[in-house]
Amino acid sequence: MSNKAKWRINVPVATVWTTPQSARDLDQQAISSPADITGWLSGLSYENSLELCSSNLVQSQVLYGGEVLIDRIEGDWAFVFVPDQPSSKDERGYPGWIPLAQITKEINDAESDSVAVITNKQAGLFSEENDLLQELSYMTILPLISEEQDRIKVGIPGSSAYVQKQDVSIYESVQRRHFGNGASIVKAGEQFIGLPYLWGGMSSYGYDCSGFAYAACRANGYDIPRDASDQAQAGINVDLDQIQPGDLLFFAYEEGKGTIHHVGIYYGDGRLLHSPNTGKTIEVIELQNTIYEKELCAARRYWRETEES
Q: Is 133 exposed, middle or buried (0-12, 13-18, 19+ CB in 10 A)?
């Protein structure tokens, strides 16, 4: 298969599975096209959700319109790399399996590099006749075709469609998005307090710990690695007595001396904004007198103070 061909996700959120056999019967709504992410998640029990992690079923997720590199196809599944999700697992991007039905060859009518970025938690994608096609996640990035009075025409996998103007921000390119500071990263994450944790989650339907940090940084123009262990190796090292709001805090087993297993966003005043684990929701907690205080091992800064556009 030609490496020059670009392939895009055609569902609101495509889950990246560990193997083609990882998806269970109860995951059908997540692996179909169109997909029903809300229906899938509402049908999962605590045990079903925990199994995504404990049985290593899921690796990551990719948002609508996101690019994947197809390495090989086996039956109805494609082994892909996600270039927007840097990973030590592979230099081409995060690896895993996605159903072929959720991938479309790119046809982009946009003549410029300008993009429309979804800035609300969720936003409708509409046809020319204003019929709802999909419900897109926060931080979905689509090529801009044209601006109309109250809606934006965007390129989508295989065609074009519309989003409401109030749901998006427009930038002249993906590389020249707005750069926010640490407080902006906190603000981006704050809006999701109360959202249930999802192992492998990379969307406003549910985030895991590193997916949450990734999204808050990406919303402010900073593209960071996908996993906590990789996030702890990049950015700028910050002494733990010098941390500021928006810095990423990392936590390791064996009271901070073992393997990194968690990341959160420093909220200020000794507090942590994070997506904890299965069965819990995104929250702000006091670090003092918690297991996290004992496990805190490193801090990294991905933001800069100067505001640019």
A: middle
